[in-house]
Amino acid sequence: MEELGSRVDVVSAPDDVPFVPHVGGRLIRVVERFGGGVDGTERVGAEFVFDSGSVVAESWAGDLRLTSG
Q1: How many domains, the chain?
Q2: Can you tell me the distance from the alpha carbon of 59 to that of 69, in angstroms, rounded to the nearest whole number?
Q3: Which residues contact 59 (CB under 8 A, 6 or more apart)?
Q4: Is the residue at 8 inside a domain?
Q5: Is residue 32 part of a domain?
Q6: What region, left, alpha or beta, does residue 51 occupy, with left being phi > 0 and alpha being psi -120 to 50 degrees?
Q7: Which sign does the torsion angle of CA 69, 42, 62, 25 carry?
Q8: Position 1 in a domain
Q9: Domain annotation covers residue 5
Q10: Partners of 57 in the beta sheet?
Q11: Taken in order 17, 33, 39, 36, is the CA torsion positive or negative?
Q12: Rounded to two decimals, what is the model's pTM?
């Protein structure tokens, strides 16, 4: 991604970030969620399912919301 002028910084996260309990765990599947748009096919979220639970990522008014599933 360097050629795009992008970089990824890895920093510690507070314990209340929904992905924290699953770090190092096995990702079982990702389920895309659709809705909105003219034909209902606009992607608006995804559910990340781990051995230890799940995390739902959704778009809400332009913001990213993460919740434990």
Answers
A1: 1
A2: 15
A3: 44, 45, 65
A4: no
A5: yes
A6: alpha
A7: positive
A8: no
A9: no
A10: 46, 66
A11: negative
A12: 0.72
